[in-house]
Amino acid sequence: MSNQDTEQYRQFIEKLQREENRQTTLNEIKNLLLLKPAGEAVSIIRDGGIARIIHCLNVSDKSQIDLTCEVLKICFDKFPVGDIVKKYTGHVMYLLRHEKKCVRRLAIDEINKCIIIDPGLLPIPEYIDVFVVVAQLVADQDITVANKAILITANLPFEAYPKVLEEMKIALEYTVSSKCNAYEVVVNISSKSFELFKLCADLGYIEHMMSQLQSDDVLYQLNVLELLSRLAVKPQGINYLMNNGALNLITEIIVDLPNNPLGNLLIPGYIKFVGCIAHHYPKEIFNKYPTILDLLFEAFDIGDQTLLLVALDVLGFIGVTIEGKLSLISLGRKYMQTVDKVAQLIRNSATETKVRALNCFASLISVDKDPNIPKSGPIDHRVTLMTREWFRCLSEHPSSMKFLCDTCKNPFSDIRLAAFNLLDAVCQHKWGEELVARVGGFIEYLLDRSVDYTNEAKEVKYNVIKKLASSAAFDEDTLDRIQTYIQQGPFFSENIMEVAMEEGD
């Protein structure tokens, strides 16, 4: 670095005092610093400061504001992460509160860099006021600024939150968008620990969220419901919802949905909410809040196609775990009637519904998708008995396995893939292996590589065949062919082998 560059920078800074010089001078500063090595540029900037550059933002001229932001970004980028906030804290606070969104974006980017590198880079006692301002920006009208503010505020050290969350409550006084942004921060941090959840609850955020379920704004209500569902899957969240009457309130809302003029728009969101918490806490929901499950089962009779697809996804999500299956079977006739309806949809529906119904059935029968069950452990005999009974519902004439075999040959690739997913679930059971062996020609079809499949279907079929590799349902010759198939892999082709042999010759 030369003294000449430092002196020139000082002169440029002086020239910025005169308004008529600013555009030209800002460009001169930009050209001076742009290609300078970071170390040299930082020394130059520190010597002359940035206060007068920032002063250039106090105008209504958009082109000057944009140019000033460009110059400031060059300056900021020369400094090590965190140094701008530490050395020019007052200026950064001013930029964060500026009326122009491009200026606020510039400042919040600097804070965000610090959080990404190390949340402890800016010690809370010294920079708490910076984080308070950032938290208030979750209500910013500019979505870029608001999203960065959400990200930063959701990733602060614990010690920041008593003051930050208290000050962030200002967002609850503005638009529904700003409220949802504040709720998102609350959900993100409440999910981290019981202590943070309690802090949010004590400050009234959770209660405020619950009150918004009475809103006449359907989209807003569904957004709040989705955020609550993310909270409800955490132990601290579900305990609060149960112990503070929140689930009782939701039950009342659900029961009254048929009388709500907007009920048809709200029901899918409430079904997803019910499914989300019932997936994680089936015993609690089935035992204490059976009424809210009626909403799910009634969806199979309403005749609304959109609602039906949601119900299929949610039923499969609840029944994918062993505990979920046992809770469903405890409903008795009501659930078995629903299984019959899913089977009917597989047999008689258009493509999209058929695919969703096949995937739902696969989740209900599968045992491998439950993360809480050891992969090598024995299957609960109750699950074995009831999944076999459910599968029988798929078809009487032809048999369920013959019907599934035919569906695996469907010319539509998405139906075929969903059928293979169901076959995979069935082959997770000994009774499933035996049924595959009984259908004449089915194992030959599975081992036939000449049938055209998508790569995804080839992988699923390969996984099915691996499950059959040690089955006692097949003779030794068939097992040898299965082992050969497995050794060759899912994407082996006879044509590729022929080409390789020709090239070897």
Give a description of the structure.
With 505 residues, this protein is mainly α. The chain has a domain of 79 residues. 72% of the residues lie in helices and 0% in strands. The chain has 32 helices and no strands. Helix 1 packs across helix 3, helix 2 packs parallel to helix 5 and helix 5 runs parallel beside helix 8. The protein is elongated, with a radius of gyration of 31 Å. The C terminus is likely disordered.
Query: How many beta-strand elements?
Result: 0
Strand content: under 5%
> Into which percent range does the helicity of residues fall?
over 70%
Task: Name the assembly state.
Answer: single chain
What's the end-to-end separation, in Å? 68 Å
Briefly note the structural class of the backbone.
Answer: mainly alpha
Overall shape: it is elongated
Number of helices: 32
- Provide the low-confidence segments as ranges: 496-503
Described by strand count, sense and barrel closure, the largest sheet is: none
Keywords: Proteasome
Pfam families: Proteasom_PSMB
Protein name: 26S proteasome non-ATPase regulatory subunit 5
Family: Belongs to the proteasome subunit S5B/HSM3 family.
